[in-house]
Amino acid sequence: MLKFLDQMKITKLATDYEGKILIYIEKNKKITTKELKKLFNIKDTRAKEILKELMNKNLIERKGKGRNTHYILK
């Protein structure tokens, strides 16, 4: 695991997606809904649900608006 996950001491994530997303953001500095959909071959609604759940857990935050929206580690 990467140092971010060790520092956050995340022991349990609701989905396998969440851990992979956090690792992806740590490596790439950000993620967009479009990238998330492509990575996991999921639909827009599911991608937004996953990102919302990570925001509710205070693990990521949204930056930008509209087409410029992306998510970074908090």
UniProtKB/TrEMBL annotation:
Superkingdom, taxonomy of origin: Bacteria
Domain Transcription regulator TrmB N-terminal: 15-65
Name of the protein in question: Transcription regulator TrmB N-terminal domain-containing protein
Species: Tepiditoga spiralis
